[in-house]
Amino acid sequence: MIELGYIILWLERGLLFMVIALLIYFLRNPEKAQKWASLVYRLTAWTSHRIERKSVASDIEGRIKSFSKRINSSAKVVAIPHEPKIEWVEETSRDAFLSGNEIIVKMDYHKNQDKNFVNAAIAYTPKALIPFSRPYVDKKIVKSIDLTVIRKLIVEEKSSAMDYFLSEILIPEVEKEPELETCYSIMQAIDGNGLFDTVLLHEFSELGRKMNLGPTNQKVIKESKAFVELLNGIATKEPGKDVNLELEGDTIRNSFVLIGRPEKVGVLGSGPYVGHVVMRCLPRHIHTVYILGTGFRNIKVGRDVVKFLKMAKKVERLTEFIRRLPFYKGRRVESICFRIELK
Questions:
Q1: How far apart are CA 5 and CA 117, in angstroms?
Q2: Which of 11, 121, 184, 340, CA to CA, is 20 to 30 A from 46?
Q3: Dist CA 246 CA 264 (whole Å)
């Protein structure tokens, strides 16, 4: 009996510990709790249409919140500041608007859950993504960014909806707008090179702050377009080929340092790269320097450049990103990006 009492006590304590652990986990990750709530709703959905719709709405909201959290973490900035709230309405086109800290998405309910998910993503994304910077970015570029984020959302959270998205949304959109097709292709190249979340979304998220949320103008819109062209040049750069690495606009003033040429790294180390920042970027009042390095040796050189600039008190703010690159020769290549705001 004593042994049985110990077992019961151990089980009770273990259950309490598990409940507390789950509560802490769900408090830190509310989107996970919402996904579990969706599962509960789904198990009882057969009892009424209202519960069925509540289940679908909760599932969509949870998936979008999980994705938004990952994007913000990857970009090291709040690129998506508002959460979704799905509301079902009869016989209406998609509509979305900001209410408090939520984007209210009103749309018709469909039995096709892939269609529901895509429709919600299409309504939500243009209202939620980089909302304070959109007026300062070229419209075709903004739309291609939206489509890229929606595609990433579907790939990561509901891959079964990809066929519907491609056939009903993406392909028709780019076919009727050749310029949009070009912009979207550029975004795919930038994303494939690990520069979409880490550089483009971060930079454009900060653009609203730089403009103090003031009136837009054609100059900054042209600079946003030039910045995308610069990133595309880096993303599609062939080994040994020189490309433009600087943008000296009124608002966007950036320089990229690519660490990689063996004749520099192997013989001179961090010297030439430090010299570039000190002798070229600082005198020209470049706001931000991006240092990109792939592989152990190049990453070490990049860290040495950062260390020197910090010791010289030239760094206003430093952000370090992990770049997600495609597999190379069957293995994941380690790559890093340092974003340095200069004093």
A1: 51
A2: 121
A3: 20
| Distance, CA of 37 to CA of 46 (rounded, Å) | 15
Confidence (pTM): 0.84
- DSSP class of residue 266 equals H
Structure tokens that stand for 116 in this block:
């529901």
Are 304 and 255 in contact by the 8 Å Cβ rule? The answer is no
Of residues 311, 314, 306, 304, the one with CA closest to residue 338:
306
One-letter amino acid for residue 265 of the chain: V
Enumerate the domain spans of the chain: 31-237, 245-343
* Nearest-angstrom CA–CA distance, 291 and 278: 14
- pLDDT digit of tens for each residue in the chain (343 aa)? 455 555 555 555 555 556 565 556 556 666 555 555 545 555 554 455 788 888 899 999 999 999 999 999 999 999 999 999 999 998 767 789 999 999 999 999 988 999 999 999 999 999 999 999 999 999 999 999 999 999 999 999 999 999 999 999 999 999 999 999 999 999 999 999 999 999 999 999 999 989 988 888 899 999 999 999 999 999 999 888 889 999 999 999 999 999 977 666 766 788 889 999 999 999 999 999 999 998 888 899 999 999 999 999 999 999 999 887 765 555 667 789 999 999 9
Q: Across the chain, how many H-helices and E-strands are there?
A: 13, 10
The length of the chain is 343
Q: Are 271 and 304 in contact (CB under 8 A)?
A: no
CATH fold group of domain 245-343: Translation Initiation Factor IF3 (3.30.110)
Is residue 336 within 8 Å of 298, Cβ to Cβ? no
Q: Which residues pair with 318 in a beta bridge?
A: 340
341 strand-pairing partners: 288, 317
Alpha-carbon distance of 282 to 276, in angstroms, equals 9
Question: Under 8 Å CB-to-CB from 326, ≥6 apart: which residues?
Answer: 192
Residue of 61, 322, 177, 116 lying closest to 107 (CA atoms)? 116
